[in-house]
Design goal:
membrane; Glyoxal_oxidase_N; Glyoxal oxidase; transmembrane; signal; Methylamine Dehydrogenase, Chain H; Immunoglobulin-like; nine-stranded mixed β-sheet
Amino acid sequence: MPSPSSLLAFGLAAAAPAMAATAGSIVEVGDTQVSAMMMFVGNNEKVYILDKAEGNQAQVNGHPAWGAVWDIASNSATVMDVKTNVFCASGMHLPNGSYVTFGGNGAVTVGGNIGSVLNQGGGSAAFDATYQDYDGSRSIRILNPCSSSDNFDSADCQWFDNPEVLSMQKQRWYSAAEPLGDGRIAIIGGFVNGGYVNRNWPNTDPATEGGAAEPTYEFYPANGQEPQVMQFMIDTSGLNSYAHTFLLKSGKMFVQANISSMIWDPNTNEETRLPDMPGGVARVYPASGATAMLPLTPDNNWTPTILFCGGSDLPDQAWGNYSWPFVNTWEHPASTDCHRITPEPEDGSTPDYVQDDDMLEGRTMGQFIILPTGKLLVVNGGKNGTAGYSERTLVTTSYSDMPFGMSLASDPAGTPAEYDPSAAQGSRWSNKGFQTSSIARLYHSSAILLPDASVMIAGGNPNVDVNLTTFFPTTYKAEIFYPSYFSASTRPQPQGIPQKLSYGGSSFDITVPASSYSGSANDAADNTHVAVIRPGWTTHAMNMGQRYLQLNNTYTVNSDGSITLHCAQMPPISNIFQPGPAFVYVVVNGIPSNGTLVSVGSGNIETQPTSDVASLPASVRLDSASGSADSSSTGNSGSNNDNGASSHTGAIVGGVVGAVVVLGIIGALIGICLSRRRRAASRQDPSNVSAYAMSNSPSSPGAGFASRGMMGLGAAGAVGGGLRSSDSSAFVPMQ
């Protein structure tokens, strides 16, 4: 295990100037081995990738792979074994730096058909002998990210995936996941089984849709709490898959589905309804509009505002049923509309949606990536249609007549665009100088911010199984998009970075050397801020858990041109930025440093310790000081890229995730703590494993907690109606 000092040294080394790319360019960089339906950044070195169970050519342990780990330095992927079908699961970080994914689909075989060993009732499968995938509908899978120095053959670096040991209480497919301020995760809604949308038509059973909808929520760890019905999931029936969820400062949660919105109290299950989405524009899957929480800054007192852009205004009936849409979706333009809402206004006003600038072009499946500058990048998606795939619609009744294969979207939107929330209304969008990708990034595409502040784009697979010859084929090529700040070849190289951030507490200093910038030191100090960014868990045009928080700081300009940033810790409210891993970027004149991995909070699932906010010294300027970097290497001035940051906002850059304390959680049925080294338990002989605990991460020391195993593969529930366990058009309506 590396020492804390060596981890710190690595964090600093990662901040070396290395910008050799062209600003605005999109560069193909390698093959992901599996189509990137899901991605998350595990640490400074690795991105983890998940696909649905399908016939990828890449093999692992004698079956097609649907998991991989991407090495950022070499732009190469290595397959990983995932036992259950992770198709359209949800995912999130945990406080100790591990990652967890919830649910998925039943076992499938070639062509997306139901696997060979059926669950009771025959509506889904427990296992398939060809693809060797197991039912993932209740699965809870945990991974502790590893570094290149670790042994990836060890169980410590692999997915733990055994529903007979660790599982949810309900089957969930397309569920939402949102962490609470203590690190627990709320898991909301989803399909039990189904197809395009989770409803019949006419919609006579909005609660369960004949047994294929799940209107409840549960927590991980459950800690004795049973699933409860969420009325909002009944009221939004049919268009509430992957509901948009954002924890608010109060500890309540903003939830948006169909065209409805509410504030939900996870402690009491009380709902406060908010206005509907203007214009009848749906943003959730399969409309799949882009959504993100805007940057939380000292200027807005870290008050959440959520932005929605794009999606679809199809009328309600047009969405059809489990089987297929009732219109040719690819003929319907995606929305350009953007609205924002502040669910808990601090002035006491009534929350309402506010019109924002329209996007430059309509997008379904567009995805927001929050950049270190505080701007939002939108990538991927299509200009027409919706997410999902099908063999037909109510109008086009034969697959042979489907113009884009199974895709329900058309006209890929290949040019990224940038949204500046601090710009004057009417001038917030730009794509000036941005290249256009030639790769269609439609359904099952993904994107995520990398530690060097570039954006990885991958995936794209609107097909029930691997198809390399259709109009929009299964895609394995990864790309990197280089935002505008890559015009600079010199990057800030902050020093004195702590490894952990607390909620309140003593301030700390970060030094920005004179070699990190050019021109006036006073101007550079005025235009420096520090962003704590959680890139999130990306799937289906969402980055679950993505947040951006700007820390408070003052500064001292030194005679040698260096700048000392006097930084406050995180605000003393863990609901604002939930505990867990994050990257920190120091941004000088609009140019970010490389991100450094930090641990926010205690590393445990618990009420997070808080302290009073430390007072910061007054800023000290020095007119004679200046940076020593070549002005030709430092790119644009901060006016375009610094998002209005000024001397009262500031920097906190951390090291790598520090040690976390062992925490045991007692489940309702079983409470146990085990070593991570027992994760290699046999999937086919669950008697070899008594239980499982999220434990020490090989690259992040610390221990986690155990949770109960609820139901095994053989106990998975099933629904009738002859549904096929994928979202292809082979579904029939539930009866």
